Amino acid sequence: MESSLSQQLRGFRARLLRRYDHGPFVSCLSGLYGCRWRRHERKQLGDCCCNKLEGASFVFLVVAFCLTLVFLYFWGQAKNDYNDFDWFSFGHLGFWFPWSVVLLVISAVFFTYISFVMLLAVCLLSEGQKLYLHWSHKIVIAVSLIFSGVATAVLSDLWSKEWKTLLLSFQITAPYLHVGGVLLMTSLAWPLALHFFRMRSRVPLGLYSPCIKEEGSLGPPPDLIGHRGAPMLAPENTLMSFEKAVEVGSDGLETDVTISWDGVPFLMHDHNLQRTTNIHEVFPNHTNTIAAMFTWTELESLNAGAWFLSQDPFGTVGSLGAEDRQLAGSQSICSLLDFLQLAAQRDKLVIFDLYRPPRGHPYRDAWIQRTLEVIHNESSIHSSQVLWLPSHLRSLVQEFDPDLQQTSSSQLPLEELQSNSIIRLNLHYSSMSAELISEYAAVNISTNLYVISQPWLFSLAWCSGAQSVTTNAPQLLRPIRSPLFLMTPAQYNLMWILTDLLSFIVIFIILFFHWWRERGLACSDSKILMENGTYRQMKTEMSDIWSVSSGNSQPERMPSLATVTEH
């Protein structure tokens, strides 16, 4: 039994201490990496993996991998603001196209390609092969570098706030980035250890996540405020959009208000009517005219829903039923009065940006007063349901109606906020900070963050203690019952410890294995060399002996021949 086991162990050891030549596999790797399908070249022990040019190409490849990874992560986490980017592009190009998705697809393709070439290089090094990167790969790598660099620079200039989004995403993904980094290092342990022991001369994220909380310390979920209603389910700023927002569970409604030439406050985000109406069909000579310069009768004659079906800004039109599509296509511009009446009937909070009319407009100086008249005299909404955002004449507005919830969009000092009777802040989500939200809450100032439509951002806002968020997707965020990635400190520590411990064990085993294997291979190679040398020496000695014996035998025969001749 013991001898059988020892024989199996010796056989297993012999298999490990054998140099395998994976010819077809290496040929495939060399062909894909350098188009050298039959000319792969194994490097000698201690040799460099490549010449200087190929070494520079490999460094070039590593830089491209890092840059494309950074850009892909950056743009992937910016998904919350894709709609804003597409409308920004629409405003400059004049036609609608989902450029944000195109950018994401291109960056994903480049990253996948670069990752594949990187994997080929690592596999070739693991097989002890020299690197020869084909010129076509070098061109694609250069293009990917230029694309990622230019795209990062341009987006940083135009959308610098997205870097704050990137930093916010680290608060959610920090624990998993650590695990991913450790797993990456662990997976690289095999080729690195192999080359370390084959060399002739041998030569560990400080991030904070508010979603790591003790059990029972998580506050209630933020209230949801529909950004221009539910713009994924209906045309923005239309009555249908607000009704959809209420249906899916929004706690409040957000919009933008301007005043028509004849004094009717209506809902419109853009300064002109080109994007969201059929102005080019009804008033083709006034497509760039400021929206406030039209009368309410003219505004009512416009269609404010057909663009939603044709442009499909969120890619959600296909999910709508036939009845909803028909209703969306027939929407018209909504007045502030109708908006407030809906909110009053459903007991919802409202918040709106109020645009001052341009110079020469009849209500240029009476815009605040006209809006307050609609709130108090024409609608049935209670003042306490209105989050008053305009900062112009705030003190007079507060004196006129103390029940309005004074809301600020600026991060002012606490003393100034309290002196202006601010009870709510309306901030961009990139300003999210659990510490600041906590400080404001301590003095009874609640925080609303806009515009949050991704579940991970909503989860981060929840963990940070935000009281409400403005969202394009209330139908997606309302079903969330618990923040994503929520964990206790004990679970977080256990994940760190187990990951690090497992990684240490695997790396140690790999290091020990390669150390043991290379020693065994060196001994085996020395033994073979010694045996070959002994054989050659024995062969040489035998040849010499045969030559000597042959030389000695010839003179002995000669006399006998002479003797025979004499006789």
Describe the main β-sheet briefly: 8 strands, parallel, barrel
Task: Name the average pLDDT.
Answer: 84
Radius of gyration: 38 Å
Low-confidence stretches: 43-48, 200-205, 553-567
Residue fraction in strands: 5-15%
Helix content: 55-70%
Describe the overall structure:
The model is unreliable at 43-48, 200-205 and 553-567 (pLDDT under 50). With 567 residues, the chain is of the alpha/beta class. It has helices spanning 2-16, 23-34, 52-77, 82-93, 99-126, 135-158, 161-198, 239-247, 279-282, 296-300, 306-311, 322-329, 336-346, 367-378, 394-400, 414-419, 434-442, 455-464, 474-477, 489-566, and strands at 223-227, 252-259, 265-267, 349-354, 386-388, 405-408, 424-428, 446-450, 468-471. The relative contact order is 0.09. The N and C termini lie far apart (78 Å). Helix 3 runs antiparallel to helix 5 (99-126), helix 3 (52-77) runs antiparallel to helix 7 and helix 8 (239-247) packs parallel to helix 13. An eight-stranded parallel beta barrel has the order 1-2-4-5-6-7-8-9, surrounded by four helices.
